[in-house]
Amino acid sequence: MRNLFALALLLLLLCGNNPAQAQAREAIKDGAQQFAALGDFKLQGGAVVHDFRLGYRILGKLNADRSNAILWPTWLGGKTEDLLQFIGPGKVVDSSKYFVILVDSISNGISTSPSNSASQPKMKFPSIAIRDMVESEHRFLTEFMQITHLRAVMGVSMGGMQTFEWAVAYPDFMDLSIPIVGSPQSTSYDKLLWTAEIDAMKLDPGWNNGNPTGTFTRGVVLSEEIGSMNLTTPGYRVNHTKPEEFEKLETEIKKDASSDPGAVCDQIRQREAILAHDIYREFGISLGEAVKRVHSKMLVIVSWQDHMVNPAPAVEFGQVLGAPIVDLESSCGHISTACVSVGPVVADFLDNPASAHSETLKESPKK
Predict the structure, then answer these.
(1) Among the four 65, 106, 125, 148, which has the fewest Cβ within 10 Å?
(2) Is residue 180 located within the same domain as residue 69?
(3) Residue 334, CA distances (Å) to 105, 181, 193, 230, 262 in order
(4) At which of 275, 304, 325 does a domain end?
(5) b or e along 151-167 (b: 16 or more beta carbons within 10 Å of the residue's beta carbon)?
(6) Do residues 22 and 14 make contact, with C-beta atoms less than 8 angstroms apart?
(7) The pTM is what?
(8) What is the 3-state secondary structure (H, E, C) of 321-349?
(9) What are phi and psi of 188, to 5 degrees?
(10) Domains contained in the chain, number
(11) 352 — alpha (psi -120 to 50), left (phi > 0) or beta?
């Protein structure tokens, strides 16, 4: 499903204390893949990820007063390479104005993950939380990049969940927060989706009672089919796939299904993090108390036809906060950002947040 999501979306420095780190940062302003070694990383659940490395890319330059840095973490299964298409002059984030930091979220196969950990491979890799993703990013920024404040945190889907988490956990760390089709809390419908996908993967013969071996086949395909149904809407699928074209669609879905047991474990761990995502329970606070913690100006972007991340919690959060809410009116559902031109709204908010207002953006009619 990562490939489906990335394909749909594509439609649309510092000198630290360590000279070697500073030199490395100077060399990657073009957005090349780099890694920050953060040593042992303790998770919220108490377990420790050993020899933790965080993948990242940077584009643009940090200005003199260090006020133009933007953090953009990845979505479920996404990689920072997928985000490069949105960065640059005239795009969602203008790297001629902003110092853009793209981060590979834990367990995406780039940062330390079940698929690439030497000491904690596959399901020996501990369970993670959305908060763990945020804490790894906070350590990376403050310890490795020597950045203590951001212009903005933004993200799509699971990246939007991290954005909500950032806004509550570190309210003074950023000026702006832009969660896009994300949520502060997984609803019961969301939980049903993620549970079904995880259960499907664990039904695969390759799961081997929690000791993944060989290759995955049937269960992963089933999980991809479930994800494909929820990625858009029934109307979208009917309008975009004729009955006689179904076999072609099924072939594409099967092509996206990973047979590698390590990659499947990556998918399970990230889905478990989303499944457990609940900022209110995590902090032991109410919605009203959570909103009072937020000091950044927030722009909430949702799609009411989203069948993958239910928009209700994000809308409620934005309403109580008094934040502008942008609704993407499109049958594209969770991938409405691929069908509705939202980039200009985000770019305007980054430059002039005071001008933001709630609005509905409609999908342009097909010619």
Answers:
(1) 65
(2) yes
(3) 19, 7, 13, 8, 26
(4) 275
(5) bbbbbbbbbbbbbbbbb
(6) yes
(7) 0.92
(8) HCCCEEEEECCCHHHHHHCCCCHHHHHHH
(9) -65, -35
(10) 2
(11) beta
Tell me the C-alpha distance between 184 and 281, whole Å.
10
Residue 295 token pair: 């000091």
Local confidence pLDDT in tens for the 367 residues of the chain: 544 445 444 444 222 344 434 444 444 458 999 999 999 999 999 999 999 999 999 999 999 999 999 999 999 999 999 999 999 999 999 999 999 999 999 999 999 999 999 999 999 999 999 999 999 999 999 999 999 999 999 999 999 999 999 999 999 999 999 999 999 999 999 999 999 999 999 999 999 989 998 888 899 999 999 999 999 999 999 999 999 999 999 999 998 888 899 999 999 999 999 999 999 999 999 999 999 999 999 999 999 999 999 999 999 999 999 999 999 999 999 999 999 999 999 999 999 999 999 999 998 766 4
